[in-house]
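Researcher: I'm preparing a figure for a lab meeting and need a structural model of a single chain. I don't have an experimental structure, so a prediction will have to do for now. The sequence is pasted below. Please return the structure as tokens so I can convert it later.
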Amino acid sequence: MAYDIVVSGQLCADLLPDTSNLPLSALSAAGKLFEVDALVISTGGSVSNTGLALHKLGIHVGMMTTVGDDLLGRVIIAKLNDRDPTLGEMIAVRANEASSYSIILSPENADRIILHCIGNNQNFSQSDINFDIVKQAKIFHLGYPPLLPQLYANNGQELVAIYQRIYDEGILTSLDLAHPDPNGLSGKVNWKQILEATLPYVDIFVPSIEEIVFMTRRLDYDNWNGNILQNVTRNYLRNLADELLSIGSTIVGFKLGELGFYLRTSDDIQKLTRLKSIGQSPDNWHNLDLWHPAYGVEVVGSIGAGDSAYAGFLAAILNGLDPHATMDVMCAVGACNVETLDATSGILDWDTTLERIRAGWTVSTLRLD
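Model: Understood. Here is the structure written out token by token.
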């Protein structure tokens, strides 16, 4: 059976010690012991976070990536198969390679801190994608090129080749990012140049605002000391989105965390005709400039919030929702995510998500100027 969505790219194990009672200052207190609560081990990364959220939302999703042949690799596949035996069937095991993992710390009243090991993802390339399976899907989604060194090497030649091949098959394409390490190899790459070569083959591009500002407007990022949400305006987002649309994408959005979600779409109706492949009307998505506030929730953790929100967006457009309703679902799924510590246990099924929205779920009072 053909998949609705094939999700590919970065997959890892997430190790999440409960540090909610630990002040941020403790992480820099050398030579001291601090008691924390239980450790949660889960699958993580774009493939897991977006893929499992799609699965919970009732989308027939295929996960296409790799793990190492170590204990963590076996744990990753076992945990996915515990959810559904079909979820691990396209995950290849790399011999003599260690699996990727992240240690995720979420101190009291502070954003998460991630210690990441690239592991087997060091070698992920287009050879790990079964294009015969992908061309039977409705949407191809790849996540986290900054954590997949082969995809950004040589000015992104591998990344461009993947998207060009799938785009030319008529499959709707979607791309998500991760924040490059400013002090690592991924932080020294010319991401603007890579995106200029890749985005002509990307229909849907919905990165987090911090990532895209770092990659395309580094001077702003540095001047704002990384405090993007405190400085962006509606006009700034519109200008940035228009720049990305002019490069080639058809639908551009920015995940804004507590500020919700911003959406801008192409004024080229011909490009929007590709949406017909999933039953969407190009006219409904023509030249939009929309913003949706975040839903009001008590935040427990933020791991995978952007990935879950992206899954909500993709599930909504596959289910035929219009842009406004799609944004409702996207923000709702992202909100459900942050109500739990890990990336996926808070996600509700499709019908329950819609019921929560229709029940009058209040939105945040924060506004985008």
